[in-house]
Design goal:
12 helices; 4-stranded antiparallel sheet; two-stranded antiparallel sheet
């Protein structure tokens, strides 16, 4: 896993991945401390959903490079979650569990091992049995202790997982549940401009939490819409994904980066969710229409990752804060590092697509000549 000296974004993605281990690994183990430096609060607190995203980050690196060492690290992160969760897959938060299930489905695809898919399905079944209910319309609750509180963080990943599982087993109605959850999200938490609100009925009064304007809600809806477009061919899903992605950039960023969304650890991961699913959208749009929107979104990805690299590099390693337009800060959680990894991995994907297009054009010119 040694990065090359060339300043490609793939090499930079290797550097970002390696920086997670350099700054956060404790000793020679694969145990990640929650912060760097390792001296703020209780660094041993178990952050289940952060680790689920580490699995995704490692799988990104494996897909990009084919290096089995990254795939092995994805499995290590999976094992870390189960070990620290008393040997169990489940906890009280449906969104946490769904993040884990999404990562497990990808590890199954990377390794071919059926056990990881079985675990993803077990989480799906548990979530549906415990949290899918008719309050405010059929949809998923946020956690077991608040079954009437519904939000985007729970229903967004449910849609994505449902579509992915439907590709593996058409005998179960995963897709039907995914579409129902998406329709509920659209009707209850998405505005006319495509902006996605966080949740509804938190206090039991049917009110929407419009005060929480978070990037990860936009990313989840984009990812859900892209998956449904790929599954159905219905362009209305693609139109919704594009609208929300563009609205997020125009309403939540300064045109270059998203600002710091809060000083808690969870907030550090929010923008990473947006960048992950922005990358999925750009992959679909690369051979589609929406030329103006695609150009705007690609420009945002380039500008943000350029700023991240310019301001976050420390002695050859990436150590960003939550505002990528500023230099390194004294303390960061590893959730912040994972967001940066996601963004750099998506920039590397964009670079690879551009290289493929250039190569195809060169071949075409030679044939024509």
């Amino acid at each position: 896993m040694t990065s090359t000296t060339a300043e490609t974004w793939s090499a930079r993605a290797d550097t970002a991945q390696q920086s997670l281990d350099h700054f956060f690994r404790v000793g020679g183990s694969q145990y990640l401390a929650n912060s760097h430096p390792h001296d703020r609060g209780n660094t041993e607190v178990f952050n289940y959903w952060w680790l689920a995203h580490v699995i995704d980050a490692r799988t990104d690196a494996w897909e990009r490079t084919g290096d089995p060492a990254w795939r092995s690290l994805a499995v290590v992160a999976r094992d870390n979650i189960v070990e620290r969760n008393d040997g169990q897959l489940f906890n009280d938060y449906f969104d946490d569990m769904l993040w884990f299930a999404l990562a497990l489905e990808r590890v199954h695809a990377a390794t071919g091992e059926r056990s990881f898919l079985d675990e993803a399905i077990a989480i799906w079944d548990h979530v549906i049995a415990e949290g899918w209910n008719e309050t405010l319309g059929w949809s998923l609750a946020w956690r077991k202790q608040q079954l009437a509180y519904k939000n985007t963080p729970a229903n967004g990943p449910l849609v994505i997982l449902g579509v992915r599982l439907s590709r593996r087993d058409s005998t179960r109605d995963y897709l039907g549940v995914a579409r129902a959850a998406f329709d509920w999200l659209t009707a209850n938490l998405v505005g006319p401009d495509g902006f996605v609100e966080d949740g509804i009925n938190r206090e039991g009064d049917g009110a929407v939490d419009t005060q929480w304007r978070f990037t990860y809600n936009q990313g989840l809806y984009v990812g859900a819409a892209v998956e449904l477009f790929l599954a159905t061919g219905d362009r209305s899903f693609l139109e919704r994904a594009v609208q929300t992605a563009v609205t997020a950039v125009r309403s939540l960023s300064n045109g270059v980066v998203f600002p710091d969304e809060g000083d808690g650890g969870d907030e550090g991961l929010f923008k990473g969710v947006y960048y992950r699913y922005l990358g999925e959208l750009l992959g679909v749009l690369a051979a589609d229409s929406f030329a103006a929107e695609r150009a705007e979104l690609e420009a945002f990805l380039r500008a943000g990752t350029d700023a991240l690299w310019e301001n976050g590099l420390v002695d050859g390693r990436l150590r960003p804060g939550n505002d990528w337009s500023k230099g390194p800060v004294e303390w960061i959680p590893y959730s912040t590092m994972v967001s940066a990894i996601f963004a750099v991995e998506q920039r590397a994907r964009l670079e690879a697509r551009e290289a493929d297009v250039a190569a195809d054009a060169a071949v075409g010119e030679r044939v024509a000549g």
